[in-house]
Specification:
Distance between the termini: 39 Å
Radius of gyration: 30 Å
Helix content: 25-40%
Shape: globular
């Protein structure tokens, strides 16, 4: 008989030995005799999802049934992503009940079949509790569970896979095939290429080896073609190379060189946006790259010593390199294009529970799952805000007892899933069934910290995060030990028992050494301490059912399904969010966590109201009435006026890492002002703090965002010099011939013009370009920012200067040649189909003026073309103008424009400003919280557009998430 547990943090009890009575399941939320579905109000809704770019309908299903408290976003995503069956057929799911029943009943049946429950009554409680938790968004399984469980297709439940490849052509071709099958199933994979001999070694036939970098090309092309899971998400993959591999420098430089190619092609007019027609010609863009470094290498970096690169076949040193210089190359590459990331090999394997069965050499694409080669991990994440008890008056506590019970419930369900799961390859199936790796995690940490009055980058915030993580993993392993007493330990446990129990002691010791800070985290630490004591006792007696229990995943799509404000371990994106409304439309709202945080900090209701109103108006807390400056940090976010410092993200990862079986999916965002030295410091501190893996992203470092333009070729330079010479010559003529002195040619009172609204990198503006009735552009007026601001004043002055120059005869092409490619913030994506990217507002303005007013030949020489012209070039190989494009009398017809006649307005009036309020209609151009933040704060968010619906995505861990349709670029 296994010992039953007792106490407030232990939840359901495990009884019976191996092959004994099974688990006794306690109720957490449900009522005997009442099904969870009967306790909620259901309503019917219509789900119609459109592409905001052209208004086309991406998905439509009417009359779907959901609880009334589910948000529009959650309903849309679950309906479009997770409901099975062809739309419009009787087989199509139309209710959340059907979806939950399909999954939960499959889990219950498998649990009964494999002896997990003590009685049918316990099985029924398990089913009801699982259904309740899913129905009320307390937790969610990862996406493959929703896609596959309970359907006729293979029951794949894992989102994360690690493959392996050996130094043989047969193994390399198997890698291509296995990776493709994983992508097809809607998941991602990672692997380490370090077993493949380098290009500096010989083949058995005597020739030179190709090296791993060359084989990456074929795998990258495969990933780009398959686009895993159809419309679910792009193929996600991770490629790792050891730092002592002789080809490591070539590996580091792969993406940097391709990024330069992207810039050159983009500047030549090719469509290099993510998902663009021409981006597919560039290599290595479908994988995240990481270098696996050792403690030996990092110590050599600190000491400025030499480091050996070793042959893969013999192990002998091929060459010695300067460790510091190699580390610098990694930082330079990451600074330039975000790759490679870094993984700390010795730290990872120090926490490895199964070293006798093989080292950990790689990770999944998002870097949270790290275990044996040819293995998989299924994920589930808890919504932390569901466990915060708040009386509305500032008194708060984290519900330790309920949290522990839900963790036990979820871990039990996750382990059951391995009993019936299918796997993409035989080797992965064998390893996963033998080690039963699980990945429980959480979402909404950022919201929880803010709601409890903790700054994300603070000792108190890190203490609460560490305590919750420790409790989650401790309870998970305790339940794993209980399950081992009921249905037996994992097959690989006997061989790895000593190592597994050593790692459990490491977790327990880290828990004991952690610093307690306040009344919120102290009770959580106490419960975690008790859980780890039980782990050591029960694990020593029964072993463990699972080699791994916890990770922190990105929680992209499932985070939206649970209506989480923040994903994974991430902080809040911004204080003001974009919220869709039932029946259509949207609202701009101040986060609900803000009032909770203010109450926790002791502010009175009238003060809370005033501060919230200030945030609604300004998007930040700076100078909010009555808010103490020392409380500003509580409201720091990932983006905005007060953004969290990069090292704050690293310190948060370090606070949670000792209490996780796996690692953390997170990218450390760095401002555009960051230097290579800053990246080096992040990578070095990550190693010292015991983080397992790190990736950085410097704002604006990728194409799709503003980049330093490549230098013009000689012909362009000559053309520019010629234009300058012509202008200079014209300026000199009045000295020689008096009658040719420039005379200002004023425009008539009534003149034709074009008023253009534009957005550059999130900054909105209006441009009025008025022309002479028969002689081209005569004046330009620009309106940006509020009247009286510095920017508005400078734009007015700039407009007057350009207009006077035009009226005195300065050719427009001279202005265009001088001001295009000028780079400064704001910059980035525009809403103009002919000018997709702009390196500054000035760059955009003169590109647009060139398209509207210059003849085709003139602007073509300057490299400025419309979208239609670029498309014809792709089809025919030349920029042949149409008759309309050659006819530029007055206004160009190269792109349809709205022409206005009548008196010019020096300041075109933008739409009426939104009324300041806690909730107000979002601007029409905003389609996600990322875009809304750009509009409010003038930020240039570094995120691609969703390939499914066109909405700008936002970061979720190491991946990107679309708030519009739920698509992700990695794990979910």
């Amino acid at each position: 008989m296994t010992e039953t547990t007792s106490g407030p943090a232990r939840g359901s009890r495990a009884k019976g030995g191996k092959g004994g009575k099974g688990l006794r399941i306690e109720r957490i939320h449900t009522t005997p005799g009442v099904h969870p579905y009967e306790e909620v109000v259901w309503e019917r809704r219509d789900v119609v999802m459109t592409n905001w770019r052209d208004g086309s309908v991406n998905f439509e299903q009417r009359g779907v049934e959901f609880p009334d408290f589910w948000s529009v976003n959650a309903v849309n995503i679950v309906t479009s992503k997770y409901f099975r069956g062809a739309v419009g057929t009787p087989q199509r799911e139309s209710s959340l009940r059907q979806l939950i029943d399909r999954v939960v009943r499959t889990y219950r049946a498998a649990g009964e079949e494999h002896g997990y429950f003590a009685s049918p009554a316990d099985a029924e409680i398990f089913e009801h509790e699982l259904a309740y938790a899913l129905l009320h968004q307390i937790f969610s399984f990862n996406s493959p569970v929703w896609f596959n469980v309970g359907t006729k297709q293979p029951q794949q439940v894992s989102a994360c896979f690690i493959l392996s490849v050996d130094d043989s052509m047969e193994s390399i071709l198997d890698w291509y095939k296995e990776e493709g099958m994983i992508f097809k199933g809607g998941s991602g994979a990672g692997l380490n290429l370090s077993r493949i001999r380098s290009s500096k070694e010989l083949l058995s036939s005597g020739g030179n080896a190709s090296g791993p970098v060359s084989f990456m090309r074929g795998a990258d092309a495969s990933a780009g073609t398959i686009k895993s899971g159809g419309a679910t998400r792009r193929a996600a993959k991770m490629v790792v190379l050891d730092v002592d591999h002789p080809d490591v420098e070539a590996f580091i430089e792969t993406k940097v060189k391709e990024e330069e190619k992207i810039r050159a092609l983009r500047d030549a007019g090719f469509d290099m946006d993510l998902g663009g027609d021409d981006i597919t010609s560039v290599q290595y863009q479908n994988a995240n790259n990481s270098v696996r470094v050792t403690d030996e290498f990092m110590r050599a970096v600190e000491a400025g010593a030499k480091f050996p690169l070793r042959a893969r076949t013999s192990g002998e040193t091929i060459e010695e390199v300067d460790a510091k210089a190699l580390f610098r190359k990694m930082a330079e590459a990451a600074h330039a294009c975000a790759d490679p990331g870094i993984q700390y090999d010795d730290v990872i394997n120090h926490w490895h529970t199964s070293p006798e069965s093989g080292r950990i050499t790689a990770s999944n694409p998002c870097s949270e799952y790290m275990h044996l080669d040819n293995s998989s991990c299924n994920l589930a994440s808890l919504n932390l805000m569901k466990f915060l008890d708040d009386d509305g008056k500032g008194s708060q506590s984290f519900d330790v007892d309920r949290f522990s019970k839900v963790v036990e419930l979820v871990i039990t369900a996750m382990d059951i899933s391995i009993c019936f799961a299918d796997f993409p390859t035989r080797k992965i199936g064998e390893t996963t069934r033998a080690f039963r790796q699980l990945g429980i995690g959480y979402a909404n940490l950022g919201a929880l910290l803010m709601a409890t009055g903790h700054a994300y980058d603070s000792d108190g915030g890190r203490a609460l995060a560490g305590a919750i993580t420790s409790l989650m993993t401790g309870v998970s392993y305790r339940r794993s030990a209980q399950l081992a007493g009921v249905v037996g330990p994992y097959d690989g446990y006997a061989r790895n028992a000593d190592a597994h129990n050593r790692v459990m002691r490491q977790h327990s010791d880290a828990n004991a050494a952690a610093k307690r800070m306040d009344d919120l985290d102290t009770p959580v630490w106490a419960a975690a301490t008790e859980a780890w004591q039980d782990v050591l006792r029960l694990g020593g007696k029964h072993g463990f059912r699972n080699a791994q229990a916890s990770v922190l995943a990105p929680t992209g799509t499932i985070g939206l399904m649970m209506d989480c404000d923040t994903t994974g371990i991430e902080p809040d994106l911004a204080l003001v969010k974009f919220k869709k409304l039932v029946g259509g439309g949207s609202m701009q709202i101040v986060n609900n966590t803000v009032p909770q945080a203010l109450r926790r900090l002791g502010y009175q209701p009238e003060q809370v109201e005033a501060i919230v109103a200030h945030i609604a108006d300004h998007g930040n807390v700076i100078d909010a009435p009555g808010l103490k400056p020392e409380h500003y940090e509580v409201f720091d976010c990932a983006m905005g006026e007060r953004s969290i410092a990069p090292m704050g993200h690293v310190r948060m990862m370090a606070a949670a890492q000792p209490f996780l079986s796996g690692a953390i999916s997170k990218t450390v965002n760095m401002p555009s002002t960051s230097t290579v030295d800053d990246v080096e410091q992040i990578y070095l501190e990550g190693w010292k703090l015991g983080v397992k893996a790190l990736a950085v992203y410097v704002e604006n470092s990728k194409v799709g965002q503003p980049l330093s333009a490549k230098r013009k070729d000689k012909a362009d330079k000559k053309g520019e010099e010629g234009a300058s010479a012509a202008a200079s010559e014209q300026a000199q003529r009045p000295e020689r011939v008096v009658e040719y002195r420039p005379v200002r040619k004023r425009l008539p009172k009534g003149r034709p013009g074009i008023t253009t609204s534009f957005t550059v990198g999130g900054a909105e503006g209006y441009m009025t370009a008025n022309s002479y009735p028969d002689d081209g552009l005569g004046e330009v007026f620009l309106k940006m920012s509020k009247q009286g601001s510095t920017l508005a004043g400078m734009m007015d002055a700039f407009s007057i200067a350009v207009s006077v120059g035009l009226q005195y005869g300065v050719p427009l092409e001279t202005y265009v040649s001088k001001f295009t490619n000028m780079r400064f913030e704001p910059a980035g994506m525009t809403d103009d189909p002919d000018v997709r990217m702009a390196q500054s507002i000035v760059d955009y303005i003169f590109r647009r003026l060139a398209l509207d007013f210059l003849p085709f030949e003139t602007r073509s020489a300057l490299g400025i073309h419309t979208a239609a012209e670029r498309q014809r070039h792709l089809e025919t190989g030349s920029y042949e103008p149409t008759d309309e494009e050659l006819d530029v009398e007055g206004l160009s017809q190269s792109a349809p424009r709205q022409q206005q006649a009548g008196p010019a307005q020096s300041e075109p009036q933008p739409p009426a400003a939104l009324a300041p309020a806690e909730e107000r209609p979002a601007p029409r151009e905003a389609h996600s919280s990322t875009e809304l933040l750009e509009m409010q704060l003038g930020l240039n968010a570094d995120a691609p557009l969703c390939l499914s619906c066109g909405t700008k995505m936002r970061r979720a861990g190491s991946c990107y998430l679309c708030e519009g349709c739920g698509s992700t670029s990695g794990c979910s």
